[in-house]
């Protein structure tokens, strides 16, 4: 029996690793399209892009793992059914719980990994991702200036760039600055260039004019210049004043959020994030129990179990969508938080009930045979 358990566990582990790797690569590709702009469009070093890609891994791995585990369970047990291996194992005395044992062992291990990710690694990854994006925006500000569109460069600053050259020169600049109340400033220049210094990032513009309007008096002052320096440290100020998002805060901070009065307006969001971290890893165990229950309970079909697989996938979609919707509702109203625990408990309880009922039916049938023979 131990050999059969090890055999099933090995096949399930290999399948789970391959599915996880495949889904991870797909998500990485979609994320890279956003992050690659930092390197392609303008001047950020390649190592920064690699760091950004690396720190995104824990943020979505906790979501990928339960789905990957379910896919591995469905694939492995369905293949063994089509090859009649499960029939042989049952003939050798392995019951429903014995067949499900390797999957449940793997599910418990993945659940523990999920808790490590959601409680510790994912918040740290979110913080590091925010720090790296802040570094990119403060040190490589012009990377985010797209050609031919009006770019929101921060609170009250809009920048238009007609063209950006390979050497970093900006052509056809229009900068509209409303940071000073009642005195909007518009700067138009033929060209410009980013300059890094001790004071921070500045844009030096050439051959243009600066227009300032006093809204109180309606007077406009205009200045023509050959060279003019524009303060472009908007990102630094924004990121310095920015409060960390709930996903960036450690679990310890979420537990002791009441000790910080400045976080009182965000109490609902922080509480919902904390309970979401507690519940989401349980899906690894729930999806696995539901998968093995759907495939192992009832009669075997050597030609495959497509209907059962479709039913399992549909249940997963409903449960995952429900968890996401309830999380969004809990952000605004913490009264919905108990529903998170209900959603993650449903697949565990349903899967356990189906397999337990199958076991009880088997025991009754076994006891009925000697009685009939007598």
UniProtKB/TrEMBL annotation:
Keyword Nucleotide-binding belongs to the record: no
Coiled coil: none
Gene Ontology CC terms: ATP-binding cassette (ABC) transporter complex
Membrane topology: Multi-pass membrane protein
Location of this chain's protein in the cell: Cell membrane
Ranges that cross the membrane: 7-29, 49-77, 98-122, 278-297, 309-330, 336-356
Keywords: Cell membrane, Membrane, Transmembrane, Transmembrane helix
GO biological process: lipopolysaccharide transport; transmembrane transport
Chief subcellular location: membrane
PANTHER family for this protein: SLR0882 PROTEIN-RELATED, YJGP_YJGQ FAMILY PERMEASE
Designated name of the protein: Permease
Upper taxonomic lineage: Bacteria, Pseudomonadati, Pseudomonadota, Alphaproteobacteria, Rhodospirillales
